[in-house]
Amino acid sequence: MVIVFLLLVLALLAVLHWYVWRRLVRDTTAGPGPARRIGTAVLVVGPVLMLAALAGGRMGMPFALQRVLAWPGFLYMVLAMYLLLALLVGELVRPLLRLFLERRAARAGGAEPSRTAERDGGPAGAGTAATGPAPAGTASAPAAGPASAARPGGGETASGAGALGTVTEEPAATGPGTAESGRAESAADGPAAAGTAGPAGAPREDAAPAGGASATAARGTATAEPEGSGADAGTAAGGEAGTGASGAAGREPSAAAGADTARPVPGGPSRRLFVARAVGAAAAVAAVGTVGHGTYGVLRGPKVKRITVPLAKLPRAAHGYRIAVVSDIHLGPVLGRGFAQKVVDTVNSTNPDLIAVVGDLVDGSVEDLGPAAAPLAQLRARHGAYFVTGNHEYFSGAEQWVEQVRSLGLRPLENARTELPGFDLAGVNDVAGEDEGQGPDYDKALGDRDRDRACVLMAHQPVQIHDAVRHGVDLQLSGHTHGGQLWPGPLIADRANPTLAGLERYGDTQLYVSRGAGAWGPPTRVGAPSDVTVVELASRRA
Asked: Where is the composition biased (Gly residues) (predicted)?
């Protein structure tokens, strides 16, 4: 069953990493290359480091190697988690960004034809010149050059259809009459041919309208006159000139149309790549910023939090008694001696009457972490420092750690109680000790006490509150939850514990849960800042 569970976990990790790779690596690169290879390598090596960091201690890995793997492995774990969350949020942003870009492109595309129309509709537009009245024919006459010489016997110049670049394919000439007729029809195609034969150069009355044959000429179509006709030279020369003028005019709109077609269509590859890179970059910045801020918050040390807890049975003489509550320091491959010193300095700065260390001090053996825990010997309080085990002590050799903290000057309360001025202080083992026959024993710790005295109980896990209520405890001090440590962890941890963090009442018993001073796994907290809490007891008789 365990193997099946592990396989399911590995399969889920593979699917999630494939999604992150697709969105953050494949979709943001134009194709195979160094960037894609580096991104793929990171998303392959990262999970291996993460699994090694998680399982290193339990696999008996040398502590020096654990320290090497812990930092990159745990930081990758938390970074990958927030990258995944940011990319999932990006799935909501992605279609909105694409829609915005498409609308902006549509507005830009609508403005382009207007600018093109303004450019083509001006007085110098080639299309207008080709279809206009007299100026078109007049302008094209000089372009013909010597080829526009007078035809034999007629004095006509070849400027009609030839000047407009229009050549009509006709049957082969059968005689002079046919040729003359063809020339007359060609000359008649232009609306107002300035160089067209006629009395005193007057315009032809039967000229075609401007939208007729001249429109054909404006589109740059060409005609060839029958071979052997007398108008060959003139028509050919005029055709070349007309085609040059009108063809240039005809090509300009085509070029504009081609540019329009070349513009990337909405949803094209370049736009998809831009959206993928924008969302990927935003996700990366959000994840790195979140992890960086959360890691800094842990490494700088816990902040001091103060609360006041009134106890009905507390005598007036004990009013204002201060207990510094410290939980979940989690010394290990990541948080070492330097971090322990920060916690000790923070606790001592509060000048407490008593220090309560409520479990999960370490993640490792005395052999590996004994030097890291040495600063605990510097803890100072008027009535001393007390310690109870947490679940992680039973993963690390609880009996050895109980002796170690005793040698450092702390008093372990293993299902035991001590009488202090004004109240009783009791402590029970963590429920994880039941597997080793060292679980909590409430009768031993609380059974024969005087119930007229106030009682404060140290118990690592909040779930132990129900036994505390049955034994008439006034206040239970706990840790264990870390406040969820990494959002959205609080949503899950809140369902697994009666109290996630802070002070709550259960019948006549109050429960205070600290978020803890350190962090397990990644040295990072998001939405659950670390703390050392000073609980000030208040007497209702004061």
From this structure: 236-247
**What single-letter amino acid sits at 204?**
R
Return d(Cα 119, Cα 113) in angstroms, integer.
10
The answer to whether 530 and 491 are in contact (CB under 8 A) is no
CA distances to 194, 196, 236, 252, 286 from 212, rounded to whole Å, are 17, 17, 21, 21, 67
Q: What is the pTM of this model?
A: 0.71
pLDDT at position 231 over 80: no
447 close to 457: Cβ distance less than 8 angstroms: no
Tokens of 460: 């690592």
Q: How far apart are CA 99 and CA 110, in angstroms?
A: 16
For residue 420, the cross-strand partners are 423
Over the stretch 246-263, which tens digit does the pLDDT of each residue have? 333 344 444 444 444 334
Contact 472, 424 (CB under 8 A): no
8 A C-beta contact, residue 336 and residue 368: no
| CB contact at 8 A, 510 and 309 | yes
Segment (H or E) for 344? helix 337-349
The backbone region for 331, taken as left when phi is positive above 0, alpha when psi lies in -120 to 50, beta otherwise, is: beta
- The burial of 300, by beta-carbon neighbours within 10 Å (0-12 exposed, 13-18 middle, 19 or more buried), is given as exposed
Query: Cα-atom radius of gyration of the chain, to the nearest Å?
Result: 46
CA angle, 299 as apex, 525 and 357 as ends, to 5°?
A: 80
Q: What is the DSSP letter of 61?
A: -
Give residue 118's pLDDT band: very low, low, confident or very high (50, 70, 90): low
Task: Give the chain's mean pLDDT.
Answer: 79
Judged by average pLDDT, the poorest of 228-242, 293-307, 310-324, 367-381 is: 228-242
Q: And the tokens for 381?
A: 């309080």
SS3 506: strand
* DSSP letter, residue 312: T
Give the sheet arrangement for strand 303-311, strand by strand: 303-311, 531-539, 321-326, 354-358, 385-388, 411-412
pLDDT tens-digit series, residues 30-58: 889 999 999 999 999 999 999 999 998 88
Q: What is the pLDDT of residues 136-153, one digit of tens each?
A: 443 343 333 433 333 434
The span from the CA of 519 to the CA of 328, in Å, is 7
Would you say the C-alpha torsion 436, 437, 442, 448 has a positive or negative sign?
negative
